[in-house]
Amino acid sequence: MEVAELTFADTGVWLVHTAHSIHRIDLDSMTAQRMPGKDANPYKFEVEVLRLRSITNCIVGGPAYFTYEADDDSVDFRWAVTTPIVRIVREVAE
């Protein structure tokens, strides 16, 4: 199943394909993981499974804004802005 927008009202596991990466968003466990492509900009927290705090503007055609719980007491949260979203599809269990 493919959708044009992803919000916290949704459930399940979704793959958000951007111009250079895939973000695996699990709305049941509220986690996220970025799988960078070869042309992706580096993230400080590459390929870690992070506790998702918020999703803003996760809409095909534009960038998404994610915030994550921080594992450092000196930081309130981590954040990321994606490149434009190409598609959002539900992950199919194998």
From TrEMBL:
Domain of life, per lineage: Bacteria
Protein name: Uncharacterized protein
Species: Protaetiibacter intestinalis
